[in-house]
Amino acid sequence: MEQPPQVARGQTLVEQHCSTCHATGRIGDSPAPEAPPFRKLSQNYRVDALEEAFAEGISVGHPAMPQFAFAPDDVSALVAYLQSIQDAPSSSE
């Protein structure tokens, strides 16, 4: 099944900017142990609530992660992709 264009654009962006440290797909471990796999972001955050952070610049409490800021169209694409890969909640949640 082919991805919608916005989701495909988001995948391209995370592969370009994030895959050095994060697992950016539906499977696999993050190359950097402290970097959460993107498919598990919804366990700690509302993914749609990350739009503002992507637009204004993400900064975290560890120096290894560079600060990023994305254009509005890219932010929408990033969020669409991240929403498309989130793990389904387990039956115990």
TrEMBL record:
Keywords of this entry: Heme, Iron, Metal-binding
Transmembrane segments: none
MF GO annotations: electron transfer activity; heme binding; metal ion binding
Domain Cytochrome c per the UniProt entry, residue ranges: 5-86
Matches recorded under InterPro entries: Cyt_c-like_dom (IPR009056), Cyt_c-like_dom_sf (IPR036909)
Keyword Metal-binding: yes
UniProt name for this protein: Cytochrome c domain-containing protein
